Structures are given as C-alpha cells and as structure tokens.
Amino acid sequence: MRLETERLILRPFRKSDAPVVCQLRSKEVTYNLLSDTQTEDEAASWVSRARKSVNEKQCYPMAVTLKEDGRLMGMCGLFRVSWEHLNAELIYWLGKDFWGKGYMTEAARRMIQFGFEELGLERISVGCFARNKASGRIIEKLGFTPEGVARHAYCKDGEFLDELRFGMIRSDYDHSRR
To answer: Which pTM does this prediction carry?
Structure first.
C-alpha cells in the first residue's frame, strides 16, 4: 500500500524506520501526544505492531516521507477502524524539523481521501489537546466540524488536559470535493 501527494509518500513502516521514529519523537513532539518519547527498542516494537495492523486491516499507521529523498518525517494514520460502523480516528505526529511547512495537512488530506474513497468509511473523527494550537489549525484546514470538548480527558505528567473533538462524515467530505 502506498499513498502519494504532490510532495509526500505515505507508506507502511519498515523495520529499518525504528531508529528514525525514536529520533523524531522528541519531547517537543510528544508534549502533545498521549504517548511519550520512545527508546529504540520501544520504537521497534511499535513499528512491528504498526506493520502487522496494516496487514490485518485493523488500522493504518503510515510513515510520512518526503517524495524527493524518502526521508521519514512522521506518522499519519487511521486508527480504531470499525468495519461494523464504518468509522475511524485520524491520528498524526510530525518531527519538529518538519513543522510549519504544511506537510501534515497534505498527508492528513490524503489519509482522509483514502478513508472515504478507498475504505468506504462513513465517518472520521480526530482530536487534539486544547493546548495544541498547531494541530487545531490543521484540523480546521481539513474541514472537520467541532463536536465538543472532553474536559480533563487525559492526565499527562500530572496535568489534566482537555481534548477538543472533531468529526467529518462522508457528506461533508463529498461536499468539500465539489
């Protein structure tokens, strides 16, 4: 499986990606993620699970790479795929050196297209910590509808964090394509 955009290739993770995943998931990156930085062994284990889940069509965590040189920049994927209810959750992260260049908006837009057009989903949801303004801007650019705030949804490093929730249904996606 391989998804392309103008500047990016989204592909399944490879075993050889684990050291780069470990480097990319710095404290600045994981500050706004549920999970923390990873050791190389933890990254290798995550990559192995990610590869298996794509093969089994359970979820689709894809490596976001630059088309020009193949550099791994982050992850964008559809998780918690429910074939019964035809929905999934969009989750993503990007290495700090690649922030602010529109890469994640581009990758997420392609992942949303994959979800609706190729997987036949009816709904895609996404969430972010209220403090994560950059992710909120990405979600807004993608055209998701605000659905609410889960107050104190998570506790990270002793701090309770609110989660902003958003959704997109097939008719929203179809309308945005016109």
So the answer is: 0.93
